[in-house]
Amino acid sequence: MISTQRLSRVFVEVADTLVADFDLIEFLHNLADHTAAVSDAASVGLMLADEHGKLHYMAASTEGAKHLELFQLQHAEGPCLDCYRTGQPVTISDLTAEEARWPAFTSRAREAGVRSVHAFPMRLRDRVLGALNVFDEDPVSFRPEDVKVVQALADIATIAIIQERAISRAETLTEQLQGALNSRIVIEQAKGMIAQRQGVDVDTAFDRLREHARRGQVRLAELARAVVDGTADVPASEG
Amino acid sequence: MAPPQDVPSAVPAIQDLCRELTERLGLLGVAVNLTSGHGSAGVIAASDDRCRRLDELQFSTGEGPCYDAVQWSRPVLTPDLANEGTARWPGYTSTALAGGVEAVFAFPLQVGAMCLGVMDVYGAQSGSLTDEQLGSALTYARRATEILLDGGPGLGDAIAHRAEIYQAQGMVMVARGEGAAAALARMRAHAFAHDLSLLTLALQILAGHELLEDE
Predict the structure, then answer these.
(1) What is the pLDDT of residues B37-84, one digit of tens each?
(2) What is the mean pLDDT of chain A?
(3) A22-44 mean pLDDT
(4) In this predicted model, what pLDDT tens digit does every residue of A143-163 receive, in sequence order?
(5) Cβ of A9 under 8 Å from any chain B Cβ?
(6) Which end of chain B is more exposed for a tag (fewer CB within 10 A), N or C?
(7) What is the structure's pLDDT at A130?
């Protein structure tokens, strides 16, 4: 299932991105896109935990995946939450067999056309930072080698968050996590402003924000902050 | 960005938070200072006079963990000031060490792009905060943010991080032509007055049913 050719491209691009001063949120969105592409999945979502062990939505390759992640957070049930709690991968090739385990989630997933979920923990030593979740429209069983590859992509997300492979200070993790959670809030504030100004929904506002950041080669969180501070704006459509 | 709440009226409650947190952590003390977009800043509350002077030291030397916490929008945790602070904040570090401080933990009082100030926690001995101490400090920092914002009730863990609240905040900022802090304070006041949860109000705003225009 996993295309090695695509995969090597991903690792090259990831290595290029993981330089000093990169944008974590944009990076996680790209990683979600790449993971979906290499695993031929319908969509991929990422969640991170705060210092209280509470999970937060961080990035997704599609709006559908985002809504499935948010649904699990709201209903406090689902494979991604179990993956985070146990620190172990959760591999569900067919969700129809899991109705007793997650009644609300399986019903919502069916409505969304999702049949299969593979959730991978983002781990740092004995601590679980979050989960990377792969959604498919058909019953899919990952081969052991596929599991390894997607777990490697989840590990890349962990590395991106701590920004260094050997983390010597426990404090660095707290600082980066809190910074990332706050950046996510800045982006939501900017989405609301753009949506109101341009008369579009918040998802369209996010697409425009992200597109404008890419074109201008500025960091997503930085552009969002400038929008909220009133020092930058995002055009309604890019000519 | 100035907080919408009248600062002097918020000071006693912030003062109480500083004392409570100091007791809970069992450390040297806690101080809270305010940041404004124009660079003026000041200490508004501290658990005791010594911590107030320690906090003011950052403003007199023009450097220190609270400046970095504001600039980077994240906590700046310095469990070993002598080793980590000397190169980063030379003037501040030497005076703080002489004042009996070996660890400083700075927590920004922020909600996304809105930063109202910083809460600094001081330790007399070098050493990391335990997970429990860290959790307490983050909780108290959020409470201080809410008091500075409007003095209103806490958001509660369950909804404090829901994306919809901040999207709605951005919409209200544009619709009302006001800053982030004022918009969030307005939403909280409206939710309280109409007996709605902040999340319910945010969902109404996002659905276009409510923009807090007719108050």
Answers:
(1) 544 468 999 999 999 999 999 988 889 999 999 999 999 999 999 999
(2) 88
(3) 87
(4) 888 898 899 999 888 887 776
(5) no
(6) C
(7) 94
Look up residue B195 and give its amino acid: D
Q: How far is CA B105 from CA A94, B60, B66, B68, in A?
A: 47, 19, 9, 11
A116-124/B103-111 β-pairing: unpaired
For A49, the closest chain B residue by CA position comes to B161
How far is it, in rounded angstroms, from Cα A40 to Cα B180? 41
Tell me how far the alpha carbon of residue A213 is from its chain's centroid.
18
CB B28 within 8 A of CB B123: yes
Chain A nearest-CA distance from B95, in A, is 23
The pLDDT score that the predictor gives to residue A98 is 95
Q: CB count, 10 Å around CB of B200?
A: 15
**Greatest CA span in chain B, whole angstroms?**
58
Nearest to A185 among B111, B131, B174 (CB): B111
For A107, B56, B156, the CA distances from B185, given in Å and listed in that order, are 37, 28, 15
A57 in contact with chain B, both atoms CB, cutoff 8 A: yes
Could you tell me which chain B residue has the CA closest to the CA of A67? Answer: B163
* Long-range contacts of the stretch B55-61 (C-beta < 8 A, 24+): B55/B31, B55/B120, B57/B92, B57/B95, B57/B96, B57/B99, B58/B33, B58/B92, B58/B120, B59/B33, B61/B89, B61/B91, B61/B92, B61/B95
Which residue is associated with the tokens 């991106």?
Answer: A160
Run of H or E including B30: strand B29-35
Length of chain A: 239
Across A14-18, A94-98, B112-116, least confident range: A14-18
**Band (A127; pLDDT cuts 50, 70, 90):** confident
Per the CB < 8 A criterion, the answer to whether B78 and B127 are in contact is no
Express each pLDDT in A166-189 by its tens digit: 455 778 888 888 888 899 999 999
